[in-house]
Structure formats: structure tokens, C-alpha cells
Amino acid sequence: MGYACSDTLAAVTILDKSTVLAGLFAVWDDIAALAAGLDDAQWQAPTALPGWTVHDVTAHMVGTESMLRGLPTPETDVDVSTLTHVRNDIGAMNERWVRDMRRISPGQLLEEFRAVTADRREALTALSDDDWNAATMTPAGPDSYGRFMRVRVFDCWMHEHDIRDAVGQPASNEELTGPAADLALDEMSASMGFVVGKLGGAPDGSWVSIELTGPLARTINVAVTGRAQVVDDFGDEQPTSTIRLDGLLFTRLAGGRTPLDHDAVTYGGDVAVGRRIVEHLNYVI
């Protein structure tokens, strides 16, 4: 999973290591518990990700963590870059891991997931603060290694819900909330300036408020003053456009997992701007 966004580095994002790791470890635990209850047919259920089953989504997460351990990407007997759902180099790399692991059973794959995440827990826990805050390349462009790990929380959390959707086991309100969900939404919020200003084309002078409802309730404010930026509030200004929708639906639209139904979204103020932003909400590539 990658982002369609700027790769210009201004200053790295400094994030609390213990908070991010708590979310990452929690979502790994949730995925392992969910996967342990699946039968063979559910492992082969298609997901919202083109060409990928539940087995493939899990293999992708194993592959990414294996890569971060320093293991080489496996070779395949086909040119994966020619596949219609592979759109970039990151996608090609992901596909090679997925195809390589189709040879192993669901039980073996779950053990691989548990093993690689256990190894990564140990390595991440031992990481120094200097290395945690060091600049590196991330799917969101150059930033801190800590930001990269928040992206990993977002990625894994999204994939947990890919699996849940595929097998018809949606999260309860209690399962939906927690440190991983908070971090995933923090990560998504950080990209909303790009989404509103660049993809959605909100004009200069816009004050856009995205109001998420339900268990994932929060408000994301974006001010377009030359450059669109996420802000805490608009001061004395009122939003020029408001967009109100369920928080989980927001994440699925931003990840390109579900088609847009404008009837599920409530707009206020400049409706045309609001609708255009929602129509371009999918920034994950």
C-alpha cells in the first residue's frame, strides 16, 4: 500500500514510540485472532483488493514485515508488473510476496504471520529513540521511521477490515475502536490536506470540515490558504464546506475499498466542493 502524495521533506514527524507500537502490536494480535477462526473457504474468499484473497492479504502483510526484517523479495515465474491490478513498483514487490506464499497452507501462513510479527516486536521494542526518529523513505514520502511505523498500523488495520469484509465478520463497536484505529485515523488525517487541496481541488480560501460519525467519530479540519493544511480549528471562521459520514465508511472510501454512494454522505455549505472532495477521497494507491 502506498500514498499518492508529495515526497518533499520539510521536517520529520516525531511520534511517541510506545504509543505507535502499542497500536501496531494490538492490530497484529487482532489479525492473528481473526485469522485463527477462519475455515479453508474463508481463507480463499476474495477481498476488495483486486486479485487478492484473504490468504493473499495475509501473505502481503507477512511479506512487508519480512522485507523490513531484511529478507529478499522472492522471484516469481511471471512478470507481475503486467498484471492489471499492479500499478507501481511497490505493487509489483507486494505481488511477488503474495504469489510466493500461495504455495503454503493457511495454517502455515498464520504461523509465518505470528513468527514474523514476533520478530518485529522484538526488533522495534529494542530500537533506539534516535533510530525511531531518524529520517527514512516511507510510503508517504521521506519522514521519520516512527511515521513509517504509523503507516504500518494504518496498513494492517485496513487489511484487518479487508479480511472482515471478505468473510462477513464486521467489527463490533468495541472491536472497531482502540489504539490501532486511533493511529490509523491519525495517519489518514495527516493526508487530508493533500486530498482536499490537490485531489479535491478545494479553492483558496476554503475551510473544509470532515465530520466522522459513529465509533470512529472525530472532526478533520482543512484550511486552504495558499496550501491546504490540516488545522485544529478555523478560529473565528466557519467552514465553507462540511462533509459528514460514518468513520469506517470514510476509511473504506479513502482506501478505495467501496464504491461511493453520495446518499451516505451529508454535505453542507459549498456542496459542489464537498462532493468533489469525496469523489477524490481515495488517495491510497
UniProtKB/TrEMBL annotation:
Record InterPro entries: DinB/YfiT-like, Maleyloyr_isom, MDMPI_C-term_domain, MDMPI_metal-binding
Alphabetized GO MF terms: metal ion binding
Any one Pfam family match given in the protein's UniProt record, by short name: MDMPI_C
UniProt xrefs under SUPFAM superfamilies: DinB/YfiT-like putative metalloenzymes
Domain MDMPI C-terminal, first and last residues per copy: 182-273
Top-level division of the source organism's lineage: Bacteria
Domain (Mycothiol-dependent maleylpyruvate isomerase metal-binding): residue spans on this chain: 26-164
Designated name of the protein: Mycothiol-dependent maleylpyruvate isomerase metal-binding domain-containing protein
